[in-house]
């Protein structure tokens, strides 16, 4: 078992979860600035947005999780602030990040969809990295897995997924790998396949949500509504539907605009 505390100096403890999340934010910020420059956007705006987006995302991710898991926090309200123990809901973080980013974009009159396209590969990369924080905390795993099945994984993953005498599916790994695949697709789309603003952002909504929907069905710690419906699966279906509609509508508008432009010429 990997100790969740990476460094301990007296009473000060630095957790692997925090280190991994910090790494995700740093790499994501660097990539977003690079993509912004390539998209004709002042990279300083990205940095200013990140300063707002990160705390907003963390606060909303925690609030989202606490709301759905209120029973485990109501008797010890101070534990709400123990974010290093895990309990950050990605969909909550996305809500906070989008709201903070939208406010900044509106204030400075910036192209929302173009900035969204430039920044969203950083988001999925951060999600891929962040799942390893769940690995350290031995959370976000699936149901019981056989020893034979787990023998296909490296020993350090196998050992960390051996909890209370049983092996569990490393769903954190499944999602991390899926997110890396989506990251590669979005990056290629941004640099080589992009036809209109919003294409990369809408594709993220669809691709990430497809993977999340199926992997969420394997997990044992899903946030639930009425003790039966998995919140993340419902949100994923909603995002897939919205993403497809937006992709079709904006793609059609883009083709119409090009057709009109060619006709004028």
Automatic annotation (TrEMBL):
It is a multi-pass membrane protein. The keyword NAD does not apply. Its EC number is 2.5.1.145. It is found in: Cell membrane. Pathway: Protein modification; lipoprotein biosynthesis (diacylglyceryl transfer). A 1,2-diacyl-sn-glycero-3-phospho-(1'-sn-glycerol) binds at residue 131. Keywords: Cell membrane, Glycosyltransferase, Lipoprotein, Membrane, Transferase, Transmembrane, Transmembrane helix. It comes from the Bacteria. The keyword Cell membrane applies. Pfam families: LGT. One of its GO terms (molecular function) is phosphatidylglycerol-prolipoprotein diacylglyceryl transferase activity. Its main location: membrane. One of its GO terms (cellular component) is plasma membrane. The chain crosses the membrane at residues 14-33, 45-68, 80-105, 176-193, 200-219, 231-252. GO terms for biological process: lipoprotein biosynthetic process. Belongs to the Lgt family. This is Phosphatidylglycerol--prolipoprotein diacylglyceryl transferase. It comes from Brevibacillus panacihumi. The lineage of its organism: Bacteria, Bacillati, Bacillota, Bacilli, Bacillales.
């Amino acid at each position: 078992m990997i100790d969740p505390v990476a460094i301990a100096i007296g009473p000060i403890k630095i957790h692997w979860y925090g280190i991994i999340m910090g790494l995700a934010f740093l790499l994501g910020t660097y990539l977003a600035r690079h993509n912004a420059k390539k998209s004709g956007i002042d990279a300083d705006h990205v940095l200013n947005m990140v300063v707002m987006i990160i705390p907003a995302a963390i606060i909303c991710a925690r609030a989202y999780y606490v709301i759905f898991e209120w029973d485990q926090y109501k008797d010890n309200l101070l534990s709400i602030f123990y974010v290093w123990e895990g309990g950050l809901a990605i969909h909550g973080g996305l809500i906070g990040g989008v709201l903070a980013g939208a406010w900044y974009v509106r204030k400075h009159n910036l192209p929302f969809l173009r900035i969204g396209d430039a920044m969203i590969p950083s988001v999925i990369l951060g999600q891929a990295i962040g799942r390893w924080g769940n690995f350290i905390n031995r959370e976000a795993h699936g149901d019981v897995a056989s020893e034979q099945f787990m023998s296909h994984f490296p020993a350090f993953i196998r050992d960390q997924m051996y909890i209370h005498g049983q092996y569990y599916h490393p769903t954190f790994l499944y999602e991390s790998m899926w997110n890396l695949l989506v990251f590669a697709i979005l990056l290629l789309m941004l640099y080589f396949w992009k036809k209109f603003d919003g294409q990369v952002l809408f594709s993220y909504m669809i691709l990430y949500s497809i993977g999340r929907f199926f992997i969420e069905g394997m997990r044992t710690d899903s946030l639930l509504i009425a003790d039966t419906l998995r919140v993340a699966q419902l949100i994923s279906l909603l995002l897939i539907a919205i993403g497809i509609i937006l992709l079709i509508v904006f793609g059609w508008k883009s083709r119409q605009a090009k057709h009109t432009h060619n006709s004028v010429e």
